[in-house]
Amino acid sequence: MKFYSTNDPEHRVDTKEAVFRGLPADNGLYMPERIDPLPDRFFAELPEMSFAEIGFRVSRRLLGDEIPDADLRTIVEETLNFPAPVVKLDDRRYVLELFHGPSLAFKDFGARFMSRLMHYYNDDPQPLTILVATSGDTGGAVAAGFYDTPGIEVVILYPSGKVSELQEKQLTTLGKNIHALEVDGSFDDCQALVKQAFLDVDLRQRLRLSSANSINISRLIPQSFYYFEAYKQLGTIGDPVVFAVPSGNFGNITAGLIARQLGLPVHHFVAATNRNDVVPRYLRAGQYAIAPSVATLSNAMDVGAPSNFARMTNLYGHVIGKDHPDSETHRRMREEISGYAFDDGATEDAVREVKDRFGYTIDPHGAVGYLALNAYQKEHPRTRGVILETAHPSKFLPDMQRILSQDIAVPDRLKRLETLPKEATPMDTDYISFRKWLLSRK
Ligand SMILES: *Cc1c(COP(=O)(O)O)cnc(C)c1O
Predict the structure, then answer these.
(1) How far is the CA of 37 from the centre of ligand 1 (A)?
(2) Among the atoms of ligand 1, which is closest to the Cα of residue 307?
(3) What is the DSSP letter of 152?
(4) Strand partners, 245
(5) If you take atom 15 of ligand 1, which residue's CA is the nearest one?
(6) Are 133 and 190 in contact, with CB atoms under 8 Å apart?
(7) What is the pLDDT of residue 138?
(8) Full-model pTM
(9) What transmembrane ranges does the database entry give (predicted)?
(10) What are phi and psi of 17, to 5 degrees?
């Protein structure tokens, strides 16, 4: 498969280059050249398919024939070594649990798939070093996703004292090929160090560097698998299916739009946001105005300039540039996506309501999805809605306990983390020290 840039459809690269580059030089985003509907046979067989089989056939469709069957199967099976169960709330509302992976959030799907694809394509004997700056969640998924991948070293920079204790443990307790740098500065300082390394021509002659950025197309592809998996579990008979997706950078919902383009009969998408509501406002009014992000309870969605918006407009026919989608793009997008935004007060009420009415513990991100689904179903009652539960509630333990006034269950793999010793290298914000450290490890 070739991948083109959303800023220039003539700019095409093969899968390997799209995965290692991450971002085209023109600052667009890579998209698969073709997203052709899967054959009728696929949908006839879907009810009997394993999650891994779904992943294999969907990735085959999106990646083309480059990777032999056996290798692609291994990549998919290693990615999907945990389930994505659908839990019923009532006849119209379901929850798709995406938190059964190692870091307890849906980003595990993307990180695991990306690491295995990179490993597959990595034919250079010189080790590859992945640099990641993290404000919390992405780092945990990337660390777990790349853990023990031969030939790939991961260096994670995080701001000292500015990530939660649990997030820090996820970054600093793995060891082996995962190295944590505890930077005496802010997230922006971490990002600046990474950026400077990528711009350092001399360094790049000595070290092979790549990033594990969330806009990498290889993180999006596996996220389309679980839309099929959810549809399979719901059963094909019944009211039309809608997905409510708690959104920040809008990668998750974009993966759903891709699944739909592959032929999955999704009736509608509900984009759910917190007060960072650039996209719901765009859907309503047709004006796309990015804004500084504001801090909320559902903090993994605190994004003021969603990076995947360019992919969304691209899927609806808009090709060049990402700031001013045309009115035809807007019209088409509105037919398939509705957007709703909620503040923290409403989110807390929703966490309590889901617990009281259904006995289900939903995290603040999922709760925003629940609210958005309810808003949509008020107008469209004859639908079956699936809320994507993007993280396990225990990841937000203090907030959850405060909101529900009770203890909540913590999975064993999380409890174990607390007992493991932290290993991180202290680093100041000075680029020279960072560079020296990188080179000293060669
Ligand atoms: C990253 C994240 C989101 C937002 O997903 P996008 O693909 O950026 O829209 C939502 N919930 C949780 C828990 C996340 O970690």
Answers:
(1) 26
(2) 8
(3) E
(4) 271
(5) 300
(6) yes
(7) 85
(8) 0.95
(9) none
(10) -65, -40
Q: Average pLDDT of the chain?
A: 94
The set of residues, in sequence order, having a beta carbon less than 8 Å from that of 361 and lying 6+ positions away, is: 354, 355, 393, 400, 404, 408, 409
Token digits of residue 340 = 């709703």
Query: Is 70 exceeded by the pLDDT of residue 45?
Result: yes
Domain range summary for the chain, segments of one domain joined by +: 83-442
The preferred substitution site among 106, 223, 254 for testing ligand 1, maximizing ligand atoms within 8 Å of CB, is 106
Q: Would the CA dihedral through 376, 378, 382, 388 be positive or negative?
A: positive
User: Max CA-CA distance within the chain?
Assistant: 62
Q: Is the confidence at residue 342, as pLDDT, over 70?
A: yes
83-442 domain in CATH 1.10.10.1450?
no
Non-local (6+) Cβ contacts of 120 within 8 A are: 67, 71, 75
C-alpha distances out from residue 211 to 20, 312, 435, Å: 8, 23, 16
Residue 212 or residue 266, greater confidence: 266
Determine which helix (DSSP H) or strand (DSSP E) holds 73, and give its type and residue range: helix 69-79
Residue with tokens 């919902």: 253
Ligand 1 centroid from CA 331, angstroms = 26
Q: Which residue puts its alpha carbon closest to atom 1 of ligand 1?
A: 300
* Residues near ligand 1 (Cβ within 6 A): 105, 107, 137, 246-252, 300-301, 365, 390-391
263-277 pLDDT per residue, tens: 999 999 999 999 999
